[in-house]
């Protein structure tokens, strides 16, 4: 059966859409819950450069998920949204290069707002470094905190 509007076979359209489906940024690939962010931060596997700081933790899924944090130090609301869009796009285009089954938190530094910065290369490089640290057990140890609570006898 021919598709009247484009003159293509219906099967050809299906094949094209399945190829592009891998590059979508699906809702299941977002980290949104506070508990997910806390779990990734508590794993203490991180890496960073002058543009991004990345935290990584394993998950029980077959795909990578990302959470993005852009603070007010980066700039105005318009600038922060611009940086978030660029990080999402970098993730979307490079997610096949990420290890499967990891949750990633990306914290943008103020230099991430520069238009000439390649956020994709930085994101892939830092995720690989953080995942390697996590796998080798070289995670940053948690700081020692003494309890200020008085003990009752």
Keywords, please?
single chain, globular, 4-stranded mixed sheet, 153 residues, alpha+beta, 16% strand, disordered C terminus
Describe the protein's architecture and organization.
This protein is α+β, with helices and mostly antiparallel strands and 153 residues long. It is built from four helices and four strands; from the N terminus they run ααβββαβα. It has a four-stranded mixed beta sheet with strand order 1-2-4-3, with helices on both faces. A hairpin with a 3-residue loop joins strand 1 and strand 2. Helix 3 crosses helix 4. The longest helix has 18 residues.
| Oligomeric nature of the chains | single chain
Structural class assignment = alpha+beta
Order of helices and strands: HHEEEHEH
Residues in β-strands, percent? 15-25%
Which value, in Å, is the CA radius of gyration?
20 Å
Q: What form results from the Cα inertia axes? A: globular
Please state the average pLDDT score. Answer: 81
Q: What low-confidence regions span 5 or more consecutive residues with pLDDT below 50? A: 147-153
> How many H/I helices?
4
Helix content: 25-40%
Number of strands: 4
Largest sheet, in brief, is: 4 strands, mixed
Distance between the termini: 83 Å
Order of strands across the widest beta sheet? 1-2-4-3
Concise summary:
The chain is of the alpha+beta class. It contains 4 helices and 4 strands, in the order ααβββαβα. The protein has helices spanning 10-21, 34-43, 77-94, 119-136, and strands spanning 45-48, 52-58, 65-70, 102-108.
